[in-house]
Design goal:
alpha/beta; Rossmann fold
């Protein structure tokens, strides 16, 4: 054992039995499974657990808000395929972490939320304990699995179950409930050591059925206008070499979802990103690799998808198939095994798509890229989203290994299409739910997990959800550069109160806010940029410094549009169209 307790002094020293407790067993069980980092926020009853974790050689990253700690744990899980750990206090702290847990589950990120809780006998009788709450049942609807450990001798098996649940099959968030009295329970050290469980093969390969693979290959070989669509599940799988070989061997154009960018460089000849609308509408057979036909892909139907088409879907979950439209050729298994099987089934006789299809895509790409280049070449004063992102793009092009975090409405939409990615698992954004508030949590998680610099491109509204974590970034001296696209409000800063009253419009922030002064208050480096040249210079210096930095990038307050590209989801917008 890494540490033990001794029995009462009345026992003769030669007969003393080494003891341990719940605090030590939790840390020992995590370390036994090669988990070395905890993200969280201390308080009753888990403060001593955090202290002990650090004393036993684990890294504890303390946050200012549990949701941000949970987001850091989630993105760490996505990057490593090992569950990220978030530790919180009971009740309100648990609820703050639960938002991140739910987001991890929806996005299929392996994460374990561990929360202290009130004693069961008091909670069940609703007798009014400190921060009393039935946390286990509150977590169940939003987690892949939820467990409570009541006996110290079950800590080893409880943590093992949580790890396996988080990473096996379709990954997701797991809740682990630790009542306060559990942590103080004692048992002899030998028994405690024996109770630890090392999870063996937590992510077993799930091989696809040969007939399913052949069905998919037959459909693909008969396609006239095939398309490969890569989702973040493809990036998570870390089957990069086989995915690239499959794309290049077949010669099929591919379209990456935002967090799959970089699986192949965005500058790859087969990338159809610049002709996205065209290929979605015109393709006849679409291969989905780790992508779901959810709202991000218009549920696989409607005008976005044009005429009839057939789908080949690779997914580890059979229940995902036919969730929105009929899937002609489902291939069920882990992505690495499925892609390898498809690759093996493509012999030298596979006919690559004809020039009519690839040429049409190339023509559309060239036209759209030329139009975008013309827009990016403009230099309005003040800056707009395009001119500011052009400056950022040109700097990041020379730093392909930098982790990029991106959130906002317009800030997210434009950055996704303007900034190229060259390596996999380097772009982290609002994901499946399309939520705001992941910025600083993801940035911290990415920096801690990779040890590499992070650039977080944030809308001023999105930044507000997690901005206090600038102190966390400075406290741990993380190489994170945050860029705030400051246009004085949500979407834009030009709205007015229609009544003429004193209160500003619901979307308007303080005019001319100096976010750069915030990080200076915590010892970081602040920059104030009003032109693309100033922005590029500041970003270059910030990255080179390797220190916490923030750039307040002032853009035209009229530059944004309502909800970015999601205007159609607004009820008022729909009513106007009618």
């Amino acid at each position: 054992m890494s540490a033990v307790l001794e029995t009462a002094a009345a026992t003769p020293a030669q007969d003393a039995v080494p003891m341990t407790d719940g605090f030590h067993l939790v840390i020992d069980a995590l370390k036994h499974n090669d988990i070395d980092t905890i993200f969280g926020l201390v308080g009753i009853p888990i403060t001593d657990l955090a202290r002990l974790a650090q004393a036993q050689g684990m890294r504890f990253i303390g946050f200012r808000h549990e949701q941000n700690a949970g987001n850091a744990a989630a993105i760490a899980g996505y990057m490593t395929k090992q569950p990220g750990i978030c530790l919180t206090v009971s009740a309100p702290g648990f609820l703050n972490g639960l938002a991140a847990l739910a987001n991890a589950t929806v996005n299929c990120f392996p994460m374990i939320l561990i929360s202290g809780s009130s004693e069961r006998e008091i909670v069940d009788l609703q007798q009014g304990d400190y921060e009393e709450m039935d946390q286990l049942n509150a977590a169940k609807p939003y987690a892949k699995a939820a467990y409570r450990i009541n006996k110290a001798e079950d800590i080893g098996i409880g943590i093992a179950r949580a790890i396996r649940a988080a990473v096996s099959g379709r990954p997701g968030g797991v809740y682990l409930d630790l009542p306060a009295q559990l942590l103080g329970q004692t048992l002899d050290a030998a028994h405690g050591k024996q109770s630890l469980v090392k999870v063996v093969d937590p992510v077993p390969r799930q091989l696809p059925a040969p007939d399913a693979v052949q069905r998919a290959l037959d459909l693909l070989k008969g396609a006239k206008r095939p398309l490969i669509l890569l989702g973040k599940g493809a990036a998570y799988a870390q089957a990069d070499a086989d995915i690239r070989a499959f794309v290049e061997t077949t010669g099929i154009p591919y379209l990456p979802m935002s967090m799959a960018k970089g699986l192949l460089p965005d500058t790859h000849a087969q990338s159809a990103s610049a002709a996205r609308s065209f290929v979605l509408a015109e393709a006849d057979v679409v291969v989905l690799i780790g992508a779901r036909l959810n709202w991000l892909l218009a549920h696989g139907k409607g005008k976005t998808w044009g005429g009839p088409k057939q789908f080949i879907q690779i997914d580890i979950s059979p229940t995902e198939i036919d969730s929105n439209v009929a899937i002609a050729a489902p291939v069920i298994g882990d992505i690495g095994s499925c892609v390898a099987a498809l690759l093996a089934g493509i012999d030298g006789g596979f006919k690559q798509p004809g020039a009519e299809w690839t040429g049409a895509i190339a023509e559309r790409k060239q036209k759209n890229l030329a139009k975008m280049a013309e827009t990016l070449a403009r230099n309005p004063a003040p800056m707009n989203f395009h001119s500011a992102l052009r400056a950022i793009r040109d700097v990041l092009k020379t730093h392909p290994d930098i982790n990029l975090v991106n959130e906002g409405a317009n800030t997210l939409d434009y950055a996704r299409s303007i900034i190229d990615q060259y390596q996999p698992r380097k772009r982290f954004d609002s994901g499946t739910w399309g939520i705001m508030g992941i910025g600083m949590g993801y940035a911290i998680g990415a920096a801690v997990t990779s040890g590499l610099p992070v650039v977080a491109i944030e809308g001023d509204s999105a930044f507000g959800f997690s901005g206090m974590e600038l102190e966390t970034i400075c406290r741990y001296e993380l190489p994170v550069t945050t860029i705030i696209f400051n246009n004085n409000g949500v979407y834009r800063g030009t709205d007015v109160n229609p009544t003429g009253g004193k209160d500003v419009a619901p979307t308007v922030f303080v005019k001319g806010a100096r976010y750069d002064k915030m990080i200076e208050a915590f010892g970081g480096i602040g920059y104030h940029a009003t032109t693309p040249a100033e922005l590029a210079k500041a970003l270059t210096e910030a990255i080179a410094s390797g220190k916490p930095a923030l750039i307040n990038a002032v853009i035209d307050e009229a530059a944004g549009t309502e909800s970015g590209r999601l205007t159609n989801l607004n009820p008022q917008s729909k009513a106007t169209k009618k």
